[in-house]
Amino acid sequence: MIYDAGFQLTVLATLGLPLLVPPIQRALAAPVRWIPGAVIVAELLAVTIAAQLATLPVLAVTFHQISLIAPLANLLTVPLLAPLLVVGAALATIGLTVAFAQPLLLGATLTLGWIAWPLLWYVNRAIEASAAALTATDIPTLAIALYYATLAFAIWGLPTLRRRLRERAQPATGEQKTVGAMRSAAHDTGRVRLGARLLTTLALVAVLASAGAALPALANGGIAQLDFLDIGAEGEATLLRLPSGVTVLINGGPGGSTLATTLASRLPFYQRSLDLVVLTDPSAGDARGLEDAASRYRVGQAADAGMLHPTEEYIAWLDALRRGGATRAQARQGDVLWLDRQSHLSVLAPPQELYPDGSDTTTATNDLILRLDTPGLRVLLLSAADDLALDTLAGSGQSLRADVVTLALPAGAPIDLQGPLGTVLMMAHPR
Hints:
Elements: H1 5-29, H2 38-63, E1 65-66, H3 70-97, H4 104-129, E2 134-135, H5 141-169, H6 174-187, H7 196-221, E3 225-228, E4 238-241, E5 247-250, H8 256-266, E6 273-279, H9 284-296, E7 298-304, H10 312-324, E8 327-330, E9 336-338, E10 344-349, E11 369-374, E12 377-381, H11 387-394, E13 404-406, H12 420-428
Parallel strand pairs: 5-6, 6-7, 7-8, 12-13
Antiparallel strand pairs: 1-2, 3-4, 4-5, 9-10, 10-11, 11-12
Helix pairs in contact: 1-2, 1-7, 2-3, 3-4, 8-9, 9-10, 11-12
């Protein structure tokens, strides 16, 4: 949960309000003093700017957009949110009781609806008019760290530096210190003030506590998550994460840098290991990415079907595993790769004796074909298997039933349902 964008935005925005709103509001007091309701305007703008500053990197990295008009959009719409919530709650409450109460309530429901409608229309039009943003891509982690370091200095370091400079320039007398303390005490009467450091500490404790509290729920009630990674049209890569924490990478695409960037957006920043890495197709379009992954991550176990005549890419893959100290298993039809106590990958192809070169027009006849069985999900992974492999699979007598079927096709190639692929899909009957 701690890596969910919604959770990050909520925590950062909530933390940014008490830390950033007061100084921003003081800075805006003079520029907006000529506007009617200047105090309210300054507060609304300060809240919006504070939330924007606190969440800017997460917004940019997650949505690849930065909105510079958000303060104006909130200034136009936020004052109406409270009335809309009240009217909407009343409308829903009365609407639920219309069927069980007097018909007179129908008139009240319609009246509330006519009150809410123009307000909602205005809010929607204001949002649409403000829907302009800058595009942000490829933001380095160092830039994000420098941004928050600068923000932290502005919150804590800069005020402390200014205070010390003032104290050096004009040392306060004992009487001035006493008067200042009395004013501070009078200002704080009836309120509890939390220092910025204490507030930040409480926020960190809340984040860690919520993340820790979520782990048992994820482990017990979660489901498997299968991500088809966008690594270009020349290969494929699939990331499987189980509720037990097991992480499996199947194929790696044609390039290591693309895969590394994609994995960094899917995995926690501290995770530097992969429990199982599977190479189903030893061609360059899948092997090169895995070769790089084996050097960036600690691979617990690796599996592939082997090759009768190893290619350069396949030898490089084996060498990367050897350098990384990974355990490699040769997987053939009938083998089972256990992921945890409830989940496993069944190897449906190739046969124990690989097809000799030249038995078909492609080298994909010996690609691994797998079926994932995990609670609530069965996936048939056909990879780039060719017609001979699919035809043999259809006649093997093995159970092919699956909720999801994945396959890799050349760019622009149609799905031929009249051939062996269509037969396999009919037998799998996926959702």
